[in-house]
Write a structure and sequence with these properties.
two-stranded antiparallel ribbon
């Protein structure tokens, strides 16, 4: 007995041959020889009924005393076109071939029914999956709407008295609704620098004037730009803007937010010429632009970068950066001793992956929606949460990382997976304990800073002596 796949192959070829034989004119087309096939022999074609009769005579199935049954011998010359390739096994053979035996026909019918049942099962499973996704989306939208109402009606009008309450902190951890995110960030970051909208306009005007002046400079007058003047970094901004969230296209040249991002970064460079523009700033400014009006985004941007951790990194204060890395390693060893030992064995230091994460506040490393959730809690807890998030990422992927060598670990951490489940990551972040020997983050950082200062004083005294 032939296998079902062989029967299907035979039936397909016979069907194709029947179609070819019934259309001889198509074979005489000049293009027929392109496929290496010879044209059919010249001569009259036999009638399919005559071929069937000759076959019956030779096989002894037909005769005056034994007429062929209509169901067994002579079959209808069906000109059919199957609905699908799978359905070919249910079709009758052409009239010039013997009919399928009843057992074989039954087997084919059973196979076809099984295929149909499996297809229906797959369709049902996919429909159930789509239904669940729709239900989850509806639930999420409903919960976001409810949360936005609570923030707008209860929390924001009473911000000073409610922002530190347990209930608000719990809501904060779950993620701030996008419709109120900008307001909450502005309130949480504050405005210690007392920047006004007017000051932003002044800084922006100075940046535009600087851009105009540098545009008319020729190569002969390049020495006009003092290399020590950080405002000269204005020209670097144009190069970086096009690299900011390229998948969104809204910050590319010609996009709706290109000029806005350009203006904020230029205004900041003139506001803080001692810092200037540093790569990574564009991502922070872009996230703020997506959630705040232009002037408010600038105010939040300037105040964010004025925080001790951000200022240490953007001013490239190597001594302070190393202190932050040392503090991070204290909690790394405390929470993930096995992975910490693996990193030490492979000489993978925190600066390899932490610098990029801290510089952009994870907005470049994590999916944008997840990065915004990290920003939510960062605005609440401060710099400590940036390093806690780093430990959460390492905890999430510790099984993968422990099986890698230095090169693969560095590649993985500098380009995290595109799909990171938010709830799963925040579960790992929540499991991180930011205490070491009953000391919190700020205490560990302070201790390390004092040790470094005292060490520097001792080395200075020895040098003098």
């Amino acid at each position: 007995m032939a296998t079902p796949s062989l029967l299907l192959y035979i039936d397909r070829n016979l069907f194709a041959k029947k179609v070819k034989d019934s259309n001889p004119a198509e074979q005489k087309d000049p293009g027929w020889k392109l496929f290496g096939k010879l044209p059919p022999r010249e001569g009259p074609l036999k009638d399919p009924k005559k071929i069937q009769k000759e076959y019956e005579t030779k096989s002894g199935k037909a005769g005056p005393g034994n007429p062929t049954s209509p169901r067994q011998g002579v079959r209808k010359n069906l000109d059919f076109e199957p609905l699908s390739t799978t359905a070919l096994i249910l079709e009758d053979r052409p009239a010039n071939l013997p009919a399928k035996p009843a057992e074989e026909a039954q087997k084919h019918r059973q196979q076809y029914e099984e295929m149909v049942a499996q297809a229906k099962k797959r369709e049902l499973k996919e429909a159930q999956k789509r239904k669940k996704q729709l239900e989850d989306r509806c639930k999420l939208e409903e919960s976001i709407g409810t949360a936005a109402q609570i923030w707008n009606q209860e929390i924001l009008p009473n911000w000073s008295t409610m922002c530190t309450s347990r209930r608000v902190r719990d809501l904060w951890w779950q993620g701030i609704p996008p419709s109120v995110r900008g307001k909450v960030w502005s309130l949480a970051v504050g405005n210690e620098l007392n920047i006004t909208h007017e000051l932003y306009n002044i800084c922006l005007a100075r940046a535009k004037e600087k851009w105009r002046s540098t545009a008319v400079l020729t190569t002969d007058t390049e020495d006009v730009l003092d290399s020590s003047d950080r405002e000269s970094s204005l020209e670097l901004i144009k190069l970086d803007i096009s690299r900011t969230f390229p998948q969104l296209c809204i910050f590319q040249q010609g996009g709706p937010y290109y000029d806005v991002l350009h203006s904020i970064l230029g205004a900041y460079t003139c506001y803080r010429p001692d810092v200037g523009y540093v790569q990574g700033m564009s991502f922070i400014a872009a996230v703020l632009i997506l959630n705040l009006d232009t002037a408010d985004a600038f105010i939040a941007f300037a105040n964010l970068l004025n925080k001790p951790c951000q200022m240490a990194f953007f001013r490239v204060d190597h001594s302070l950066m190393l202190t932050y890395f040392a503090a991070f390693e204290v909690f790394f060893e405390e929470n993930l001793p096995k992975l910490f030992a693996h990193f030490k064995k492979n000489n993978l230091t925190p600066d390899i992956y932490l610098i990029d994460w801290i510089f952009t506040l994870y907005s470049k490393s994590l999916p944008l929606d997840l990065a915004c959730r990290v920003w939510d809690v960062f605005c609440r807890d401060g710099e400590e949460f940036l390093f806690r998030t780093a430990l959460g990422v390492l905890r999430l992927y510790q099984d993968v990382l422990t099986s890698m060598d230095f090169i693969h670990m560095a590649q993985f951490l500098t380009r995290l997976p595109d799909l990171i489940p938010p709830e799963q990551l925040f579960q790992h972040i929540a499991a991180v304990h930011m205490t070491s020997r009953n000391r919190k983050w700020a205490q560990v950082l302070q201790t390390l800073t004092e040790q470094k200062r005292s060490g520097a004083r001792l080395s200075g005294a020895e040098a003098l002596s």
